[in-house]
């Protein structure tokens, strides 16, 4: 089969690899229909994070179940599924608490390799999310929205859940990447009354507005902080969705939060050495981490996509085939694409 | 009048001072009945924090309203009141959000000086909490419990509120000082099923058990972490109440929390430079700050003391008169007293 492979920083190649096989009774083999490139992939693409040479890549997909292990009852071959980047077992303490992104029964060192024709999915007995019908029952927009439920939309939603966004809230979104844009959708879904997106990219700001942002703050740094405070009569916002991951982004989040607000942080943290005293003196909370993809999809997000209540698939501004994987990464790396879609099988 | 005054690190003196007067329509003058010494007072007593020489001290009291400003309607002269260390105005964004400890209308640079015969209380029109009846209607134990509602019990409760403790939870308390012991009471009040107190002082551990702790972990550092994990089948606890304030205490809290748990931090933070990546990778939240004393007293704590559902006054292990203020501080400093009570007027 064809699989995207990391050759060196800046270089991804499609290579021929053996088709994966069932190794545990809880495994499933998935034939990938659509995959995509994540902002977090850029860390190793840019050489800022180590990655094993010749490893397969990608962790977001929708596809068809090809084969299941003996313990997998919830899906069967032929089912159309969301393939989460998380692999909750469904029964450990973390999964039971609703935080499957911290499942203690995940296979250590697992390299998912979703940018490929086939993938092996672990803990399929719980974590796979069945989509009604077959791919041909959906149009382009809905297929793309279903694909976002494997990571980016669930991650934006985790920001809103972590920040405990409630109906009527004023919410600020730090980060205008695909996760930040999905966080706008999530804030709106939670009933936020006012959604302030910090963005200095016209196209991203426009999409944020389409998704529900009521205000765009296009300044940077201190000027952005002052602008948000001005919009809230100096009170600060009820919740901040931090979708970048840098220390600077978290620090900005603290400065625009009102007393008692919670920052929902889903940007993968880089060097987050910070003085947390400001959090204390502002009674500001910091929560977040890896999203609970399966839980969120089942609870709410899949239904919202099926009803077309949300259309997160619009974050895919550029479309590629698996053979064009290098270009898919380049478009993200150069910020031409908000998010690159990768068509694998039709 | 007599007032306790900070002379130099290690030295507190009772001096004659002018009786305070109404300066704002929202002020009240309180005749202090009982006051006490707070763990946070030890920071400047020990010279670890700067404090103005000759400043009056103390921020916890119960007393009788002596005089009120024109705007104060909720209490009148003669009323018996809890005198919170916080001074919420009741109507700013922070107060409306329920975080009066961050009231933006607090008088800047206010030095409360509650360890004195009289004190001036600002924002009395909202923040003072009326106690039914008069001091002589209560016995020693209940008077002491009422006194804890000016700070320490409300602060322990804020730890539980910040950590979002729910019925059935397994909760760990880091810190066996008066705040940590009150946090045990708060966790129990919230319906926690299992309350693990980290304490290596027999008397404090005994009081924790009296207050509702189900398990005592007496080891230190890594051994304590392993003991808590063992008690929870390696899962970690549902909530951690951090009642110390050091970086080490917060770091320990992170290591004993299960995925998705929230650390409720009420220990005044010292040098809290920390790497927050561990929070992210564990989906662990960090919340907390200054307690909402008036709100908590009115919502729940005053009624609980009046019904004798809780008896936080037992944290006062040593009793002094105002004239003995130096000894009251020494007893806390040398960890002889869990908390020093100061009888001012009968």
From TrEMBL, chains A, B:
Residues 10-342 form the Enoyl reductase (ER) domain. The keyword Cell membrane does not apply. This is GroES-like protein. One of its GO terms (molecular function) is zinc ion binding. InterPro entries: ADH-like_C, ADH-like_N, ADH_Zn_CS, ER, GroES-like_sf, NAD(P)-bd_dom_sf. PROSITE patterns: ADH_ZINC (PS00059). It comes from the Bacteria. Keywords: Metal-binding, Oxidoreductase, Zinc. Belongs to the zinc-containing alcohol dehydrogenase family. Its cofactor is Zn(2+).
